[in-house]
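ARCHIVE CARD
Drawer: 12
Card no.: 0347
Subject: one protein chain, sequence and derived structure
Cross-reference: see card 0346
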Amino acid sequence: MILGLFLPLLLLVTILYLQLKLFIMMFSPWEIYGPDGVPPIVLKNCAFVHAPCLAKLFQLCLLTSSFPSCWKFAYIQPVPKKGDRSNPSNYGLIALLSCLFKVFLIYPQ
């Protein structure tokens, strides 16, 4: 009887796992990694191992409307625009996020 109460949640996590695994496989492995130090190529090459744990973590994040505080950090990287590289105004900034947080943000929930 108790299993019947949790069966829809278990099915949701299973579906999330399968979708997440496919999504991670499409992720670009050559992106620069952020403060978590997890290279995207590791996540992609081991998607079958990481996807079940990430599915549970993402499901918990969605249920509690929160996410780990370590995902709030980012590296800021200056990127040169066209023009004189010695002029500071010719640089734009990009934020290098945690690889896991990037998957969580981009994944179609």
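Annotation on reverse: The mean pLDDT is 81. Helices lie at 2-26, 40-45, 47-64, 99-106.
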